[in-house]
From TrEMBL:
Species classification: Eukaryota, Metazoa, Chordata, Craniata, Vertebrata
Name assigned to this protein: PP14C phosphatase
GO molecular function: protein serine/threonine phosphatase inhibitor activity
GO CC terms: cytoplasm
Biased composition regions of type Gly residues, renumbered to the chain: 28-37
InterPro entries: CPI-17, CPI-17_sf
Entry similarity comment: Belongs to the PP1 inhibitor family.
Signal peptide: none
Phosphoprotein is among the record's keywords: yes
Pfam family membership, one: PP1_inhibitor
Residues covered by region (Disordered): 1-60
Transmembrane segments: none
Length: 158
């Protein structure tokens, strides 16, 4: 195996400069690097370009993962959940860490047949709250109107 470096990169490597690149290549033909150096450097640049294209394709494929999720819906859901935590902190008069175990499942609420059933589920969840919850329930029902359930991401066949 021989080591091939480019002109200025060889100088940087000799001078101990950082950022130099070293390419490893297998010996061709009789093992000498005589007359084939011009064509082998061209082959190296072609293979380096192919490697760059492969990296870009991999990045593009990795980017597709987030496309499977509806980002706008996820952002709405996150904002809503943050609002719920803030409101529950006010209702219970404590910080999130001190709050009693209260679970409001947005997807469960969206599964409910109508607004009355959603309100009933929320009232049952907040039964331990000593402050009035009607305003919170009304506002939450308004905020979830038009939202969709989050389904697990669909796997795409390759």
């Amino acid at each position: 195996m021989s080591v091939a470096t480019g002109g200025s990169e060889a100088a940087a490597a000799a001078g101990g400069g950082g950022g130099s690149r070293v390419f490893f290549q297998s010996p061709r033909g009789g093992g000498g690097s005589g007359g084939s150096s011009g064509s082998s450097s061209r082959e190296d640049s072609v293979s380096a370009a192919a490697a760059v294209v492969q990296v870009q394709q991999r990045r593009h494929q990795q980017g597709k993962v987030t496309v499977k999720y509806d980002r706008k819906e996820l952002r709405k859901r996150l904002v809503l959940e943050e609002w719920i935590v803030e409101q529950l902190g006010q209702l219970y008069g404590c910080e999130e860490e001190e709050m009693p175990e209260v679970e409001i499942d947005i997807d469960d609420l969206l599964d409910a047949a109508n607004e009355e059933e959603r309100a009933l589920k929320l009232q049952e969840t907040l039964v331990d709250c000593y402050k009035p919850t009607e305003e919170f329930i009304k506002e939450l029902l308004t905020r979830i109107r038009g939202m969709r359930k989050l389904s697990p991401p669909q796997k795409k066949s390759i």
